Amino acid sequence: MKKILVAYLTWKNSINSPNTLKKYTGSVEIYCDLVFGKKPDELTRDDFENLRYSDTINKFVKPLRDKDIKDSTIKSHLIAMRSYLNIIRKEKIFPGLNMSSISNDVFKVQSLGMNNVEHYEPISLTDLNEIEEWLKSKNYFNTKVDNAGEKYAMLIDFMYKTGIRVTATFNITWSDFTLMNSPYGGDWAQLEVLDKGSKLNTKYLTRAYYDKLHRIFYRNNKDEKLFDELSQHSLRSFFKQFSEKKGRHLVIHSLKAGTATTLYAQTKDILLVRDFCDHESVSTTENYIHQQEDPNHMGTAILTENFDADKIDNLSKEQLLMIIHSQPEIENTIMRTGSKFHLTF
Question: What is the pLDDT of residues 211-235, one digit of tens each?
């Protein structure tokens, strides 16, 4: 057995927590793939002798930042690499090579911040509707994709409503869906997708929503990827264009932050939001739920308001409908509550 493989197995066995092991191995695999083009147990002496700080910045940090990966996540990846190098040093895999110096000089990037969770704005349902309409109406000069506007609008709608990260979204195939009838009621499309950390996540889409996806994207090949015609690079470019148009800082990850914020605002169920986001910890979910800046939604404002709810009875049907349709969140609350009372819409 090669010495580097022994070191890799020793490093993995030295990590007690299954959760930490999962995160660290994923981090090391990402770095080795981007920088070396190899697996962690295939590295050679030459790889480390030729490794430079510029490789970490240009081949690792910048590409991940371009994908809207948080600095705190990138820094965690580099900490995992330093942990791996420490075992290589202890095992004396490459005698005479100063692994401690490499660890300190190559894998420490001082410009990476840890408190950057809110460096982007969340997208509300109103924002989602606006960007979808913008995508449908914009001109697509350099694309061979038919109905590109409708397809990109459906792509971000799907990401918002499933909470699936962009890389995993672009790897979904039609064969990942299973059509089913639930014993609790309803026809569903069960989607199983490998997301962050190679974790298998299950999402349930209504049959009507799946049928819409099928109508827009299906090309008679069940093994084809849903969004194979579309481009991640173009999607990021569209977010940048829309952000500049609105004077805001919206990125792809704004979708998940926005949907977590919206879902919590509608349900006040932090565990439901945690499960939706596929987080292992509620504290992670809390970082995704952005505080509303509107004073009308602040705690003191809500508690000091003294509405006379009986006055609702005096509103006309037209006035009520105007209020309901003024915000997608209110519409969704009405529909969900009505379904609980088995109302027919």
Answer: 999 999 999 998 999 999 999 999 9
Distance CA 22, CA 199 (A): 10
* Secondary structure E strands in 96-176: none
pLDDT of residue 334: 86
Residue 262 host element (H or E): helix 254-267
CB 11 within 8 A of CB 83: yes
Q: What does pLDDT average to over the chain?
A: 86
Of 241, 238, 215, 242, give the one whose Cα is nearest residue 226.
Answer: 215
Buried b (16+ CB within 10 A) or exposed e, 101-121: ebbeebbeeeebeeeeeeebb
d(CA 284, CA 260): 11
* CA–CA distance, 329 with 190 (Å, rounded to integer): 25
Helix spans in 138-228 (H): 148-162, 166-169, 207-217
**What is the phi/psi pair of residue 177, to 5°?**
-95, 145
pTM: 0.57
Q: What is the rounded distance in angstroms from the CA atom of residue 176 to the CA atom of residue 190?
A: 8
Question: ∠271-276-282 over CA atoms, to 5°?
Answer: 40
Q: Is 148 left (phi over 0), alpha (psi -120 to 50) or beta?
A: alpha
The pLDDT tens digits of the residues spanning 176-207 come to 999 998 887 888 999 998 876 566 788 999 99
CA atoms within 13 A on the CB side of 332: 13
Rounded Cα distance, 123 and 140, in Å:
23
Instruction: Fill in the DSSP letter of residue 61.
Output: I
Give per-residue pLDDT as tens, 220-275: 998 999 999 999 999 999 999 999 988 888 889 889 888 888 888 778 788 888 88
